[in-house]
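thread from #wetlab-drylab

HS: before we spend reagent money on co-crystallization trials with LLP, can we at least see a predicted complex? here's what I'd submit
DV: go for it
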Amino acid sequence: MQNLRYVGKNLFLERVSIQNFLKKNKTPFYIYSENQIVSNYLNFVKTFKKTNPLICFAAKSNSNTNILRILGKLGAGADVVSGGELLKALKAGIKPKKIVFSGVGKSEDELKIAINKKILLINCESESEAKLVNKLAKNLRKKISIGFRLNPNVDAKTHKNISTGKADNKFGLSIKNFKSFLREINKFKNIKLEALSVHIGSQILNDGPFKKTLNVMNKLIKELKLNLKYVDLGGGFGINYSDNEKPINLNNYSKLVNNFATKLNCKIIFEPGRSIIGNTGLLISKVQFIKKGDNKNFIILDAGMNDFMRPALYDAFHKIIPITKNSSKMKSAIEFVGPICESTCKFGVYRKYQKLIENDFVAITNVGAYGSSLSSNYNTRPLIAEILINKNKFKYIRKKQNLQKLINS
Ligand code: LLP
C-alpha cells in the first residue's frame, strides 16, 4: 500500500495523520485511500491495455456507492450479484450497458430489474435460470442478451472456501450440460447467447489456473464454432496480504488474453474486486482492554468479527500495525481479539509486539475488499463508518449506523 507510511512515529494515509484524525473521530471505522484506488484501477487498465477490456468492478468486494462512483468515473463497469448491488451501481452513475449480473440463485424480482434496466449481460448459471429469463423477457416482449457462466473444472489453487471453478462447486454450468442446452437454445426466442463467462475463485496468486481456464474456453468456443460478442474472464487476482506473498503478475497472462481475443474477435470482460480495492483500506480500532492470560495477553479491540469477518471465515492473515510507533516491547505474546461472543472473533497472534496500552490505536491492514461489504449487525452492533481520504482531505462515505434506528428496525 504505497499511500500508507510512517512519518517519524506516526502512521499516515496519504497526507492524513491517523493519530490527529483520531482526536475527533471515533473508532472503529474503515478508512480508504482514494489515490490507491485510482492507481490500482489504472494499473489494471495498463496491464491489459492492448486488449482494452471492459472492466466490471466486482461490487461485492466493496459496494460503497462513493467507491463505485470513483471507479465508474474512471471508466469501470460493475459485476453485480444481487438486485441491491445492481441498483447501487446505477445510483453510482455506472451505465447499464457496463453492468454484468452473476449469481447462481437470482430471483424473479432481481431478473426483472436487470431486464428492465437493460444491463449488458445476465450471466446465467443454470438451464433453469436461462429458461426463466426467456419467460420473463417474453412477458415483457423483449429479447435479452445473455451469457452462460461455465464451470471449467479448473483448480484455482486457493483457499477451499473461495474456490469456485471445480466441478464440485455450485457455480456455473458444466461444459457437458452447456453443450446439451445449446442444442435446444433456439427454442427460446427471447434470449440471445452473446457471451460465455468464467470465474474460478478468488485470491489466486499464480497465473497457471487462469491460463488453464483460457485454454478450456478457447477449445470449447472453437469446437462449437460459437460466435460470441463477449468473453467474460471473471476476477480472482490475488494480492499480497503478508510480506512473504507476492501479488499475482499478470503480464504473461495479458499476452495470452490478447491473442485469445484477437483470434476470436470478441470483447473481453474482467470482474476484478480484491485487486482493485483490497489494499486501499484500513480498519482503525482502539485497544479497549488488555487482559492477562496464562499463555498470552489478550488485546481486546473495539472492532469485532461483525465489522471484519475475513479472519473468522477464512483464517485470513491481516497485519495489524500501531498508529503510533514506540521502541518498547510487550513482555509476552499477544492476541488481538474483538468483543463478539464467539471464539473466532480474533485477528491474529504476535510473539513480539511493541508496547500497547489501553486506549492506544491500531490499524488492521488490507481490508478494502470483503471488509465492510461482509460486515453485519451480529450482536446488534451498528455498521461502522467508512471514510475516504484524498490527499489531506477526508469525507465520510458512510456514517456509522444509528443505534436507535437499528433497535427500532
Ligand atoms: N466475479 C464473480 C462471479 C465472483 O464471484 C467474484 C468473487 C468476483 C468476480 C471477484 O473476485 P475477486 O477479484 O475479488 O477475487 N469473501 C471472500 C471472497 C469471495 C469472492 C466471491 N466472488 C474473501 O474475503 O476472501
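DV: Residues 58, 60-61, 79, 102, 162, 199, 202-203, 234-237, 271-275, 310, 314, 369-370, 374 surround LLP (CB under 6 Å).
HS: ok that's useful, forwarding to the group
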